[in-house]
Specification:
The chain has 128 residues and is α+β, with helices and mostly antiparallel strands. Helices cover 27% and strands 25% of the residues. It has 2 helices and 7 strands; from the N terminus they run αβββαββββ. The longest helix has 28 residues. It is elongated and about 70 Å long. The chain starts with a helix and ends with a strand.
């Protein structure tokens, strides 16, 4: 009988250890949602907003803005650098409350309204 009690205790410890690892994995794999521009939202002079933040693939960026004045264009690096929405891979968001899931690597976003990107309405985010 004493042997059975010891096996049950070892079994309980093993199950507890597995449960802890599973919970840690779930916590680590949960996506984070970031409000672009924080309380100011998607607006001018935002290009340094991502500095110092840690992003992972699967995290979400939420762009809040007045759709009468702005939009969001997910763009490639050339489009970002040239402030051009002409890329066939670009995707335009225009609801004023857009959630975009980050892909692994560099993610580029600009405002597609003429002149806005040139005035700093663009961000680059690197997701690990």
């Amino acid at each position: 009988m004493a042997l059975q009690g010891r096996c049950s205790a070892n079994h309980a410890i093993a199950l507890t250890t597995i449960l802890v690892f599973v919970l840690l994995h779930v916590k680590a794999s949960q996506a984070t949602t970031f409000m672009v521009g924080d309380s100011s939202g998607w607006t001018f002079n935002i290009n340094n907003w991502a500095s110092g933040k840690k992003f992972k693939a699967g995290d979400k960026l939420v762009f809040k803005y007045n759709p009468s004045f702005h939009n969001v264009v997910a763009i490639d690096e050339d489009g970002y650098n040239g402030c051009s929405t002409a890329s066939p891979s670009s995707k335009i968001y225009s609801t004023g409350n857009d959630a975009v899931k980050l892909l692994k690597g560099h993610n580029y976003f600009i405002c597609g309204v003429p002149g806005h990107c040139d005035m700093g309405l663009k961000i680059r985010v690197n997701a690990s």
